[in-house]
Design goal:
With 316 residues, the protein is of the alpha/beta class. It has helices at 12-23, 37-46, 74-83, 98-110, 125-130, 157-172, 266-278, 293-315; strands at 3-8, 27-33, 50-52, 64-67, 87-91, 115-118, 139-145, 177-185, 194-201, 206-212, 219-226, 229-234, 239-248, 251-257. The strands form two sheets. It has an eight-stranded mixed sheet with strand order 8-9-10-7-11-12-13-14. The chain has a six-stranded parallel sheet with strand order 3-2-1-4-5-6, with helices on both faces. A hairpin with an 8-residue loop joins strand 8 (177-185) and strand 9. It is globular and about 70 Å long.
Length: 316
Amino acid sequence: MRVKLAVVGVGALGEQHARIYSELPEAELVAVVDIEEEKARQVASRYSCRSYQRYEDVLDSVEAVSLAVPTREHARIGVDLLKRDVHVLVEKPIAQDLEEAELLIQAQKKSGALLQVGHSERFNPALLAVKPFITQPKFFEAHRLAVFVPRSLDVDVILDLMIHDLDLILHLVDSPVREVRAVGIPVLTSRIDIANARLEFENGCVANVTASRVSRERIRKLRFFQPFEYVSIDFHKKEVEMVSLLDEAPGKQISERNFEIDQDEPLKLELQTFLGSIQGKKPVGGEPVACSGEEGKRALALALEVKSRAQSALRE
């Protein structure tokens, strides 16, 4: 059975949701919704579906919604959808604060619907290829740099870009965060546009994370060391470099592992997983959804802590 769904909010990212759903055989894109009537009409025409300005108008005809509205609207709309038993994929960050994130989580628990948070970098083929070989990371170095574009300016660079890497690191390190240090400055907006955070985990792992939306080139790399191995992931190019130290007679040897990496679009894999969850197919790991509300809240909590530390440093 095809899943009937709508995309609510068809800005730059929401339109990509609509495009992919319109191409997937397991999905039926019923409608797109946007408060800008002309934008909704254009996107609907492009992907052969109906357009609306109010999300309430589509609820009787869909089972699920991709929610790609501004972050400040996530909880208000998402909670209402969940109360009506509509499955929701909400774009990251899950909400603008922890209280609103909890409202979404509680609404999902009382509902018969699913809630998935859109941390699409988890579905990057480069990460998926190397993930089975990740054992016990000890040190991370993350760089996520972007050219300035006038979108997502309702949040700072920490909640816009850095949260991707914060979520990935939390996903890969099986230990609570012990200490957070951070700095950041506004450059082209009134919010923090470039930031750096140093995270220390209780198991001794350390992560150094940098994010910028005022760079001249696009970089999305995560490098880490684990016992006897170095791994470098280029999310933009979908490439992996893995170097291992082999303790074999007659002496130690350096080995480089080659990976065959699919070039699938991370967002496409994410949406397919969401659709699969609705159809009863559990993602890898056996959880109901690939990135739960609780996981989205955990990433948000760390991002807000980084933001608080960076703002404190800025005032000093």
